[in-house]
Amino acid sequence: MAHSCSFEFNRTDIIDYSVKPVKDFINCLNKENMKHPGAIWKELLANASHKPATVLYPKERLELPPNFRGRPVFHPEKCIGCMLCTKDCPSRAVEINKIAEKTYSCTFHLGRCIYCGQCADSCNKDAITMSHIYELAAFEQQSMNDTTKGEPKTPTAASEPAAG
After folding, report:
1. Model confidence over 27-48: pLDDT tens digits?
2. pLDDT computed for residue 82 by the predictor
3. Which residues pair with 106 in a beta bridge?
4. Domains along the sequence of the chain with CATH
5. What is the pLDDT of residue 8?
6. pTM score, whole prediction
7. Exposure string for 100-118, b = 16+ CB within 10 A, e = fewer
8. Is the bond preceding 37 in cis, omega lying within 30 degrees of 0?
9. Average pLDDT of the residues in 133-154
10. CA 20 to 30 Å from 76, out of 31, 34, 68, 126?
């Protein structure tokens, strides 16, 4: 018959700086169901020699994979106003507005965005790309809206019709 071992940590033990939970754990190890105490030491020594599974964030940073999907970035000079990004976004987090002829602004509602990359995949002109920016904490919801406006295009001398 297998015996189960249980011990509890409760808040009063921690506040009173009691060693009762530790004693309960040690008693659990000495019970009949702990037939191979050497197995614990073997496991402990094997895991002590491995490198940690976590890093000391934010002092240390992990290298992100090249296809990491962070904050979306709008490139207004490439946008043609097809609105595919707004139609394909599953969380309706992309908003495109026309500023002038062939000039658009884009607002990403980052509080709604699920960072799936569908807007970047749908854009056939690469006007939206996914960055490696992932630290997006904010105190106010309004600051989670990222608006990028394109500059109105002024006609150049080459594109103006010849006078005459």
Report:
1. 666 655 466 667 777 777 777 7
2. 95
3. 96, 148
4. 11-48 (no CATH), 72-149 (3.30.70.3270)
5. 55
6. 0.62
7. eeebbbbbbbbeebebbbb
8. no
9. 84
10. 68
**Amino acid (one-letter) located at 158:** A
- Structure tokens given for 82: 């097809």
SS3 letters across the chain: CCCCCCCCCCHHHHHCCCCHHHHHHHHHHCCCCCCCHHHHHHHHHHHHCCCCCCCCCCCCCCCCCCCCCCCEEECHHHCCCCCHHHHHCCCCCEEEEEEECCEEEEEEECCCCCCCCHHHHHCCCCCEEECCCCCCCCCCHHHHEEEEECCCCCCCCCCCCCCC
> Which tokens hold the place of 142?
């309004």
Cα separation, 144 vs 72, in Å, equals 12
